[in-house]
Design a protein that fits this description.
It is built from five helices and eight strands. The chain is α+β, with helices and mostly antiparallel strands and about 230 residues long.
């Protein structure tokens, strides 16, 4: 029975998630290179397959699965900046504008609006393309010894209400194809995603980090100027 259940999950779950609007966000424009092979080679895409519209009512975890946010959690808090000091990643974080289409914008990171924000008790899910100036260093690091060197690294997330949340990397998940664990996350962890291939048929890299601390932040540091653009 266990083997049958595993086959059902592996064959049918990705299709069901796609139909429900739970496809992984972000296609990325880099081909995948395993192990310690040379880095990915940039490839232009002639066209993109639009991602499905995501219905928050569908992606919320089951009732009772997520602890209610504390009374101090501001309902309008959103992520505004992500910094991965060791990898040199420092990006403004925004939501994908409704008029920008479904393909993620470049020169910024984006937060998944149907999941949580720092301090909410749910997963904070931030994604960006595997390109120079974006999450390319994350992809390259994951290809060396399955990202072992990333474990223990510090990641910083600033928020719109001038708070700085610090996380520590605990997991590197390569070749992922769904958001099931992020949707079920009731620990308030940070999830980072980037691409492993040139279109949305390729799996994604997920890096998971545990919450460490939160403190007031310099308002200037928490509100970087964002210059998003359509990827070419």
């Amino acid at each position: 029975m266990r083997a049958i259940a595993n086959r059902f999950r592996s064959r049918l779950l990705p299709a069901l998630l796609l139909a429900a609007g739970l496809a992984l966000l972000g296609a990325g424009l880099l081909s995948y290179a395993a192990g310690v092979a040379p880095g990915p080679v940039a490839q232009a895409l002639a066209s993109y397959r639009p991602l499905p519209t995501i219905d928050p009512a569908i992606v919320l975890p089951p009732a009772g699965a997520t602890p209610a946010p504390t009374s101090s959690f501001p309902a309008d808090r959103v992520s505004t900046r992500i910094v991965f000091p060791r990898l040199g990643i420092d990006l403004p974080v925004i939501a994908q504008p409704p008029d920008a289409g479904s393909f993620p914008l470049c020169d910024v990171a984006l937060y998944f609006t149907s999941l949580g924000q720092p301090g909410s008790g749910r997963a904070t899910y931030i994604y960006a393309h595997a390109r120079v100036g974006m999450f390319l260093p994350l992809l390259l690091a994951s290809q060396v010894d399955n990202g072992a060197a990333l474990i223990g690294d510090t990641v910083e997330v600033y928020t719109s209400d001038d708070e700085l949340f610090v996380y520590r990397v605990t997991e590197v998940r390569r070749h992922q194809r769904d958001l099931v664990d992020a949707l079920d996350d009731t620990q308030g962890r940070l999830w980072l995603q980037t691409s492993e291939g040139p279109n949305d048929s390729y799996p994604k890299l997920q890096v998971v980090a545990e919450f460490v601390s939160a403190a007031p932040a310099d308002p200037f540091a928490a509100h970087p100027e964002a210059h998003p653009r359509q990827c070419t």
